[in-house]
Amino acid sequence: MKRFAGALAGLCLAAAGTSAVLAAGPAAAAPACGVDYRVDQWATGFTAQVTVTNGATALSSWTLSWHYAGTQAVTSAWNATVHQSGTAVTAESLSYNASLPAGGTVTFGLQGTYSGTNPVPTDFALNGVSCGGDAPPTSTTTTTTTTSSPPPAGCADVCDDFEQQTGTTPGGRWTVGAANCQGTGTVTVDSTVAHSGTRSVKVTGQGGYCNHAFLGTTLAAGSVRYGRFWVRHTTPLPAGHVAFLAMRDTADGGRDLRAGGQNRALQWNRESDDATLPAQSPAGVAQSVPLATGTWSCFEFEVDGPGGQLRTWLDGAEVPGLVVDGVPTPDVDQQWLARAWHPSLTDLRLGWESYGTDPDTLWFDDVATGPARIGC
Question: Residue 283: enclosing H or E segment and its boundaries?
Fold first, then answer.
């Protein structure tokens, strides 16, 4: 079973960015490649974005290899298949990014753990030719890195990493559809991009109201509910109203509680009266945050039905503009507190709906819900 992201306790700490650019020096032959290896790290873990620039020879497939000088261990990757044996690491192209023209670039990412120091690799080689000259790497023997762990603590209802999915359409507890109207948006199981393990769910979301696309599952009864999932998307949140999470509220006439974006920042929206959190004033929007593109983000929420409260975290940090705590906050919750609200949520749907013309492509992974905060 695929390792849940919650197994890395330090994953939600603030990252400190470092980077190193390694390019070939003078040599008799044209350099095989240049590598830009950019690291965000915290106490015990890191992510790296790796951009490879090809040399003078076009490639139909590629393998980048290197060695770690410390205790680094790769736990997951995206846009490449990454293997590790000891300190030796290789990243192999996927079907959609295998072709690399002369002078072309390709970017992939990885996540890992370390202890002590986390030095940047210095011996990158592309298809066996060193990026710093003509010598091949010292070792190309690899084995696939695999990890396994139980669901994260606190997960008591939905605990799904999609590793058990065997078809292209999500099955099991999940159904695909939309409550209102469906069009050309699609929901598929993806084995090329994953937060951890080898599978995620990909939503190709289209613009326009009738292109809603979601995967959904029922929720067990509960008055206080916490949720956590990892989301990766392609296009920055637009000015118009969009949603990537919807939950049916039987205490509000069966209408949806929705999370998504507006004015280029995260927001909650109550379908029954179109109340927004935060209020969509410049001061209110400033108390929310955008959703980063091209990387995995951890989205957490708490919905307290009896207390009528709502809290939200992104990558472990609470978002001030996405909190309803019963204490009025100017430019944040005046619409939300305009009437009594005690939600009773019965399902969880992840996907995309746009009320304008804004498409997006998203991936979801490591979904968990329960009666206590689960964390990233």
Answer: helix 282-285
